[in-house]
Amino acid sequence: MHEYIIKTNSVFKKFKKTYAIKDLSMSVRKNSVYGLLGPNGAGKSTLLKMITGIIRPTSGEILFNNHPWTRKDLLNIGSLIESPPLYENLTAFENLKVRATLMGISTRKCNEVLQKMDLMGAENKKTSDFSLGMKQRLGIALALLNNPKLLVLDEPINGLDPFGIEELRKIIRTFAESGISVIISSHILSEVQQVADDIGIIYNGSLLYQDKIDASENLEQLFMDIIRKERAY
């Protein structure tokens, strides 16, 4: 029987008169990479913002590590939602030190996450001079400072060149192997297939499909068939 780091039970999120998330139930296994797939505007970011406490569900339940989600669980969650929250006039190390100080974490942890994200050679470089890929890696380093059990990454490969994507893919795979569960959202199917253990397909705020990835399956075809079927209704 699987153990889950996150489960959502019939979650809804309403903005004014519109439901961004509708009756959504998903399950993310511990020590796995879960790929959340969907076209732009499908509800991926809204769902991840609820899991990370940025917004609250209108109704339904979110369980973290088998108990109802509370704000205390943020101590065990790291996230990179949209763009990395960086002070561009500061160096990579200084950005990490600011966050570590605010969280009461030893600055020794800064060097540890820089090493993990392959940024040790750039620790004294101002982030205004960073490439987009380096900024993304530093954003993930910030999310790792609190030793999270769950790491949430919203479209982390957007705008990266092929080398940046390959580097990030390798790093993400090491997280699950080291005991960190990962949710990664994307609309780039080929990349998710290479990094994820399980996938969920979301469209118009509803989770239409959830299962383990079959390496031999044509994920693009599966995705298009599911979305076309839903659009036909």
Automatic annotation (TrEMBL):
PANTHER family listed in its UniProt record: ABC TRANSPORTER, ATP-BINDING PROTEIN (PTHR43335:SF8)
Keyword Nucleotide-binding: yes
Pfam families assigned to the protein according to its UniProt record, in alphabetical order: ABC_tran
Assigned protein family: Belongs to the ABC transporter superfamily.
Protein's UniProt name: Putative ABC transporter ATP-binding protein YxlF
PROSITE patterns, sorted: ABC_TRANSPORTER_1 (PS00211), ABC_TRANSPORTER_2 (PS50893)
Enzyme class: hydrolase
ABC transporter domain residues: 6-229
Molecular function terms from GO: ATP binding; ATP hydrolysis activity
Designated gene of the protein: yxlF_1
Keywords on record: ATP-binding, Hydrolase, Nucleotide-binding, Transport
The protein's Enzyme Commission number: 3.6.3.-
Species, as recorded: Clostridium oryzae
